Amino acid sequence: DTTICEGEAVQMEITGMADSYYWIPPRFVSDLTSPTPIVAPRKTTTYSVIGQMSTCIPDTAEVTVNVIPAPEIDMLERRNSTPGQVVKLNANYDGTPGYTFEWTPPFGLSCRSCASPAAQVDTTTTYSVIVTDPETGCTDTAQTTVEILVACPPELVNMPNIFTPNGDGVNDILRIVASPAIETIKSFQIYDRWGALVFATNDINAGWDGRLRGVPAHAGVYVYLIEAECPIDGLPLFRSGDVTLIRN
Q1: Distance CA 10, CA 36 (A)
Q2: Would the pLDDT of 248 be above 80?
Q3: Which of 48, 85, 126, 172 could staple 145 via S-S, CB 3.0–4.6 A?
Q4: Residue 198 buriedness (CB in 10 A; 0-12 / 13-18 / 19+)
Q5: Are 187 and 157 in contact (CB under 8 A)?
Q6: 8 A C-beta contact, residue 122 and residue 83
Q7: Cβ proximity of 229 and 201 under 8 Å
């Protein structure tokens, strides 16, 4: 028997002689007829190998591969930034205490061993993080690229095309989805189909709750207008479009 971390593989070894072999179960076995296949089960599995020599009675042996759950992390693949701007790198994980983190390369990072260091670089940089469970030694890795912008595309400011302010706590507030490169806005306005203003703010974190003067607004299509400033050249950055308010 042997123990591996989730996501790892191990090579089987046989003691004895046979002319042919067959492994069961077949899932995650590299070669079902090899005496030394590589197996990569996702959970603890007992494998059996049947050996046959000529017309003799076949023999069977078993081995259990114990699989230890590995840490799981994920990050945004790409973050936009401007030269010298501070960007938070968040390694999202299940919150298990005791995990260790190792970030590379080290330059531009506020710390190398925390879950969410701040990065401040002048050139596009790809960071990798390894998270380790010290009790098992199992690891997981993730990467994110901090892309330094030389211009401001309109896509730095986005808006969902649907929201459902029904009080269920999911998608109840219509908010701007902005790149970390955009930290403030000049205005965020929403109009109904007749051109009447129903919401306005200059707070990038504020959003519309689907109400008009305290009364739920009608379901339908609304128009949004956003004005921000490009942090690179100071030029205006505009974004507009439609959003649909749905009431279940």
Answers
A1: 10
A2: no
A3: 126
A4: middle
A5: no
A6: yes
A7: no
Q: Tell me the per-residue pLDDT of 135-148, one tens digit each, with 9 for 90 and over.
A: 999 999 999 999 99
> pTM value?
0.67
**Cα four-point dihedral sign 68, 72, 77, 79:** negative
Query: Letter for the amino acid at 41?
Result: P
Beta-bridged to residue 65, according to DSSP, are: 2, 45
Q: Is 23 exposed, middle or buried (0-12, 13-18, 19+ CB in 10 A)?
A: buried
Distance separating alpha carbons of residues 214 and 228, to the nearest angstrom: 28
Q: Residues 6 or more apart from 57 whose CB is under 8 A from it?
A: none
Question: Exposed/middle/buried for 12, CB within 10 Å: 0-12, 13-18, 19+?
Answer: buried
Name which of 104, 91, 28, 99 is nearest 65 in CA terms: 28
Instruction: Report the DSSP pairing between strands 236-245 and 38-39.
Output: unpaired
DSSP 8-state code for residue 142? E
List the beta bridge partners of residue 246: none
Q: Which two tokens stand for residue 193?
A: 């189909």
Strands 78-81 and 139-148: parallel
**Residue 85 per-residue DSSP state:** -
32: DSSP letter: T
Q: How many residues does the chain have?
A: 248
Measure Cα distances from 8 to 17, 25, 39, 106, 145 in Å: 28, 18, 9, 27, 26
Task: Identify whether the C-beta of residue 153 lies closer than 8 Å to the C-beta of residue 85.
Answer: no
